[in-house]
Amino acid sequence: MRFFATIPFLTAFLVASTMAEPQPVAAAVGETNDFVARGLAGSLLHLREPEAMAASPGDALMERDTNTHLAKRFDGARFTWFNVGLGSCGRVNVPSDFVVALNGAQWDNRAHCFQTVTVSANGKTAQAQIVDLCPGCPYGGLDFSSGLFQYFAPLDVGVLSGSWNFN
After folding, report:
1. Secretion signal: which residues (predicted)?
2. Is residue 72 over pLDDT 50?
3. Which domain holds residue 39?
4. Of 17, 34, 66, which marks where a domain is finished?
5. pTM for the full predicted model
6. Residue 40 shares a structural domain with residue 102
7. Which residues 6+ apart lie within 8 Å of 52 measured at CB?
8. Which of 43, 66, 89 is the last residue of a domain?
9. How confident is the model over 13-31, as a mean pLDDT?
């Protein structure tokens, strides 16, 4: 019975969290549900790192939703290779480094610089670090350093298909 009592609250909470001006949860659902509002808002904020806590519960939902792509696995991804050097993240790499350039659609203004990814292709798996932008790569695609590409196949293959995910 307790679950059904919170349905009007959840509906009001979701509506309040999508308003142009953030509203306090209690104002969106009325003072009678203030205890429930504080409990849910607290639960949502605990899903995030303390130093990155949002100003409102609506912000917490949006932050959690925008970061879910970090856990997603990208299957059927297109992998190519490039000659490394000074990458868009500001570091110089050499061909033998296991590094990748991230496609433009996921680049997010350098937000993923130096994050690691796990890549699988041709029955092998390796970890690599994001150090550059690949503006010509499709969504989900990665450009490998020549050393990383050669771990999976000879360079003359040119294009591989596989899967990867953020670590």
Report:
1. 1-20
2. yes
3. 2-66
4. 66
5. 0.59
6. no
7. 63
8. 66
9. 40
